[in-house]
Recover the amino acids of this structure.
């Protein structure tokens, strides 16, 4: 079965810190995504990538950047964390050009104090 | 870009009753409509999906209907059970907008025993 692994389940950071959220998938999927999940707002797309070194902005990219140096790894970077970035972050991957079924990681609950 | 609206935000039903969740989408180019279930503390998982060339799809107690003209689709759960209690997300995939899936805000379903 597909496994999408996020490096941390819970993370506490201070305002202004640089934060790295890591995601690794083991099924050679081409497409990878970062979403944030907030109550009442559903899952909002931050960034996605459909190939190594490729990245595309989602609906809420402000304050975030991403890196995809290897096919299996997609990192989300908060250059200078702010309190409004406190959220659950979910990584996902999918395996074909039509971007169908998404496989999600377990999520990282980030708290910025 | 695509926008997906989902209603209701909360739904409470008695065990054995049916539950219906409705979604509308804005981009007529969207052609893939998945539904994800997220149990408390767990990752979202795909439960059923439908493509734009199909009007209805059924899998045991769950079914999804799609009205392309009206741009809305619905999830139907019959004979609900306590284990159906979860948050359900509808989504739309817009191939012309890149390889991204846009989600609704979610519906929290409570099934009372």
């Amino acid at each position: 079965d597909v496994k999408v692994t996020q490096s941390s389940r819970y993370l506490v950071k201070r305002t202004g810190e640089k934060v790295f959220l890591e995601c690794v998938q083991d099924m050679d999927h081409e497409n990878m995504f970062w979403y944030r999940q907030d109550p009442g707002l559903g899952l909002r797309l931050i960034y996605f990538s459909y190939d190594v070194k490729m990245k595309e902005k989602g609906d809420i990219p402000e304050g975030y950047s991403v890196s995809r140096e290897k096919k299996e790894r997609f990192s989300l970077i908060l250059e200078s964390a702010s309190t409004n970035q406190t959220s659950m972050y979910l990584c996902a991957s999918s395996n074909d050009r039509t971007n169908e079924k998404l496989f999600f990681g377990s999520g990282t609950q980030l708290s910025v104090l | 870009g695509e926008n997906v609206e989902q209603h209701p935000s909360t739904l409470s039903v008695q065990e054995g009753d049916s539950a219906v969740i409705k979604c509308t989408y804005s981009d007529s180019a969207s052609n893939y409509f998945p539904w994800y279930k997220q149990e408390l503390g767990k990752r979202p998982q795909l439960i059923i999906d439908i493509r734009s060339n199909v009007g209805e799809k059924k899998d045991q107690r769950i079914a999804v209907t799609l009205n392309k003209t009206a741009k809305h689709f619905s999830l139907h759960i019959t004979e609900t059970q306590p284990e159906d209690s979860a948050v359900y997300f509808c989504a739309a995939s817009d191939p012309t907008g890149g390889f991204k899936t846009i989600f609704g805000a979610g519906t929290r379903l409570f099934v009372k025993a």
Summary: Chain B has a mean pLDDT of 93. The first strand of chain B starts at residue 4 and ends at 7. Residues 2 and 27 of chain B are 5 Å apart (CA to CA).
